[in-house]
Specification:
Blueprint lengths: L10 E3 L8 H8 L6 E3 L3 E2 H6 L2 H5 L8 E6 L3 H14 L3 E6 L4 H5 L10 H14 L4 E6 L8 H13 L4 E5 L10 H4 L7 H10 L4 E5 L5 H7 L5 E4 L2 H4 L7 H4 L10 H7 L1 H8 L5 H5 L12 H11 L7 H15 L1
Parallel strand pairs: 1-2, 1-9, 2-4, 3-4, 4-5, 5-6, 6-7, 7-8, 8-9
InterPro entries: Aldolase_TIM (IPR013785), DUS-like_FMN-bd (IPR035587), DUS_fam (IPR001269), DusA (IPR004653), tRNA_hU_synthase_CS (IPR018517)
EC number: 1.3.1.91
GO molecular function: tRNA-dihydrouridine20 synthase activity
Length: 329
């Protein structure tokens, strides 16, 4: 895969376990058309032996979308990468950043940073199997192997196997003693290490991740790296994404209001409601759409208290909007 064949996404939305489902991605796409969206990490064993339609199906509106794989077996990763490509995904990403104990027990995720040659073998096998980009998401280091030189050697070895895009979470991971949540916050951010990586590997696509929560911060990063991955802010303040296409990509499409975004998913909610998907399964991704705005509490309360009802549909959303408007009138 040559660098010219890689689309440049200035912003991407991180793979987040138990959150980056198809409904989350559909909702994010109502706000940004140009950013790259990810699935949550899916284990190779789940794809090989599990319910593939349930795991892999997505709506055409979600594209471009990448699928993140977890695993350490080159042949199984190659098999899954081919399945992912045939399913219509635009990119397949290998997780070398998750520090959870369950992932470590499977010998994948962040612990693979200690095995760059193993990762290189996985990437090489995957690239031979597909034509879509094969990329890696990793940390700046793990445990005591956290110097810049450790990370640069990892990237060098994996790049020699053909990987051209590295998404770097600018924190090290402690494999013991910190939870996955703590590993997202406690180890200090080291942005300069990522900037140096880009300077020393200018031919590679380097995307930065970690602690970036505002458009101003995204803009400040882009002169230093090729792209920015944001994560939890898409859950906590999703309306931020409504400005990305205009302010980051220079698109002239008008920015939708929060209410317009909510109205844009009503038919989608009813489509899935007719297929026995509970309303809260979808609307949990829009509970924070009015974050920081008057009436957000009553909006969230009405949806959370009633969204578990099997009969709840878009009418409940309309009611929540009306209650919020009453508070603001």
């Amino acid at each position: 895969m040559v660098i010219s064949s890689l689309p440049r996404y200035l912003v991407s939305i991180a793979p987040m376990m138990d959150y980056s489902d198809r409904h989350f991605r559909y909702i994010m796409r109502q706000m940004t058309k140009k950013s790259l969206l990810y699935t949550e990490m899916i284990n190779t064993q789940a794809i090989i032996h599990g319910d593939r339609p349930k795991l892999l199906d997505f709506s055409p509106e979600e594209k471009p979308v990448a699928l993140q794989l977890g695993g350490d077996n080159p042949s199984q990763l190659a098999e899954c990468a081919k399945i992912v490509e045939d399913w219509g995904y635009d990119e397949v990403n290998l997780n070398v950043g998750c520090p959870s104990a369950r992932v470590q027990n499977g010998n994948f995720g962040a612990c693979l940073m200690a095995q760059p040659q193993k990762v290189a073998e996985c990437i090489e096998a995957m690239q031979k199997a597909v034509n879509i980009p094969v990329t890696v998401k990793h940390r700046i280091g793990i445990d005591e192997q956290d110097s810049y030189e450790h990370m640069a050697n990892f990237v060098k070895v994996v790049a020699q196997a053909g990987c051209q895009k590295f998404v770097v979470h600018a924190r090290k991971a402690w494999l013991q003693g910190l939870s996955p949540k703590e590993n997202r916050n406690i180890p200090p951010l080291r942005y300069e290490d990522v900037y140096r990586l880009k300077r020393e590997f200018p031919h590679l696509t380097i995307e930065i991740n970690g602690g970036i929560t505002t458009l101003e911060q995204i803009k400040a990063q882009l002169p230093m790296v090729d792209g920015v991955m944001i994560g939890r802010v898409a859950c906590d303040n999703p309306y931020l994404l409504a400005r990305i296409d205009q302010e980051i990509y220079g698109d002239d499409t008008p920015i939708r209001s929060r209410e317009e975004i909510v109205y844009s998913v009503l038919d989608y909610v009813d489509f899935w409601g007719d297929r026995h998907v509970k309303l809260n399964t979808i609307m949990r991704h829009l509970l924070q759409i009015f974050a920081g705005q008057p009436g957000t509490k009553i909006w969230k309360r009405h949806l959370t208290e009633n969204g578990y009802n099997p009969d709840a549909n878009s009418q409940l959303i309309r009611e929540a909007l009306s209650l919020r408007e009453l508070v603001n009138s």
